[in-house]
Amino acid sequence: MSAGVLFDAPGPATAARHRIYTIVSLIAVAGMVGYVIWRLYDTEQLTYEKWEPFLTPKYVRALLVEGLLKTLQMAATAVVLAVAVGGLLGVGKLSDHGWVRWPCWAFVEFFRAVPVLLLMIFSWFLIGIEWSGASYWGVVTALALYNGAVLAEVFRAGVLAVPKGQSEAAYAVGMRKSQVMNIVLLPQAVKIMLPAILSQCVVVLKDTALGYAILAPGLTEVGKRIFREFGNHVPTMIVIAFLYIIVNLILTWIATWVQKKFVGEKKVLEVSMTAGLDTGRAV
Questions:
Q1: Higher pLDDT, residue 7 or 221
Q2: DSSP state at residue 8
Q3: What is the rounded CA–CA span in Å between residue 235 and residue 250?
Q4: Percent of the chain beyond pLDDT 70?
Q5: What is the C-alpha to C-alpha distance for residues 273 and 277, in angstroms, rounded to an integer?
Q6: pLDDT for 97-108, tens place per residue?
Q7: What is the pLDDT of residue 169?
Q8: Is the dihedral of CA 184, 150, 248, 160 positive or negative?
């Protein structure tokens, strides 16, 4: 009944067109997949010699322990720091005091605008390239600053998405602004922000691949050592991409589960819409 209200059921001619479009799309996708496989075969990228490292325990262990584990470690460290930075800046942007609000606004706008790769290179040199851990912390610092600036807007939007009556009721019983923020608004906003925060974790994980440019450890660094030894650039990149996809699918599944468990679609939509606006309102 509700579907009929939203749109008319397609007639025979429309249904036939949809079937034709579906068949043509499937043929086009199958053709592209076939072309890719043929190109890989024609350039000898499917030979056993090029895929042998990924069947050898030593190299598989290097990919999983030195590569994937180090990548997850960098991403986890960056996420923790980004959430802390984002929370402070998000609350700061909601402050009634201009000397707090405007520096937070400038910080967020600056680091959201600077490309992550440039941040990594700058952080690497700032920390000191002669130190063995500089590349690792260069990646973590850059990801924490950039994603912290992005999450600041998520935090601000999450607080603004809480019904205004909640803060008004808190003020009516005599709470100070800090109490309203910490006791009333933030606990409710966290449930709204969780899916967006988890989605940003996917971005952090993918951006660790940029550490390749500053010799940072991780999947791309291990992959570089493998294809330099075997000359199998394409197979190595396919395997690394596959590992990234698997981990990102797990994170996406977690974000979807959290969204269904803790927050409704309406609130998620409100955060998504509000995050792109800079109203400058203070709670």
A1: 221
A2: P
A3: 23
A4: 89
A5: 7
A6: 888 889 999 999
A7: 80
A8: positive
237 within 8 A of 223, measured Cβ to Cβ: yes
**For residue 10, is it left (φ>0), alpha (ψ between -120 and 50) or beta?**
beta
**N residues, the chain:** 283
Q: Where are the domains of the chain?
A: 9-41, 72-275
List the end-to-end C-alpha distance of the chain, in Å, as a whole number.
Answer: 43
Kindly indicate whether the domain formed by 72-275 is annotated with CATH number 1.10.3720.10.
yes
The pLDDT tens digits for 220-266 are: 999 888 988 888 889 999 999 999 999 988 888 887 787 777 655 44
**Distance between CA 66 and CA 236 in Å, rounded?**
15
pLDDT band for position 275 (50/70/90)? very low
Interacting residues of 222 by C-beta distance below 8 A, sequence separation 6+:
62, 63, 66, 67
Which ranges of the chain does DSSP label H, i.e. alpha helix?
2-6, 12-42, 48-51, 57-61, 70-93, 98-113, 116-127, 134-161, 164-172, 177-179, 186-207, 219-230, 233-262, 265-275
